[in-house]
């Protein structure tokens, strides 16, 4: 019984570790998408300014 409990606790710890890794990966992906979106907005603003100057 003790071995089964150890396995259960170990599996729970592995699950927590995996969820934490997935959360971190998701956070990094969100940050990258936000950075790309900000760059696109900046390019769009520059294009509008150029067309207004012309």
Descriptive notes:
With 54 residues, the chain is mainly α. 96% of the residues lie in helices and 0% in strands. It contains one helix and no strands. The protein has one helix spanning 2-53. The longest helix has 52 residues, at 2-53. The mean pLDDT is 91.
Number of H/I helices: 1
Extract low-pLDDT stretches.
none
Average pLDDT reading? 91
Beta-strand level of the residues, as a percent range?
A: under 5%
Order of helices and strands: H
Q: How is the main sheet built?
A: none
Helix content: over 70%
Provide the structure class.
Answer: mainly alpha
The general outline is rod-shaped
**Rg, nearest Å:** 23 Å
* Total strands: 0
Report, as a whole number of angstroms, the end-to-end distance. 79 Å
Briefly, what is this?
This protein is mainly α. The chain contains one helix and no strands. It starts with a helix and ends with a helix.
Which labels suit this protein?
0% strand, mainly alpha, 54 residues, 1 helix
Task: Give the topology, please.
Blueprint: H1 2-53
């Amino acid at each position: 019984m003790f071995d089964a409990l150890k396995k259960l606790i170990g599996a729970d710890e592995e699950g927590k570790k995996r969820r934490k890794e997935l959360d971190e990966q998701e956070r990094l992906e969100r940050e990258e998408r936000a950075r790309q979106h900000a760059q696109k907005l900046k390019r769009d603003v520059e294009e509008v300014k150029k067309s207004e100057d012309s």
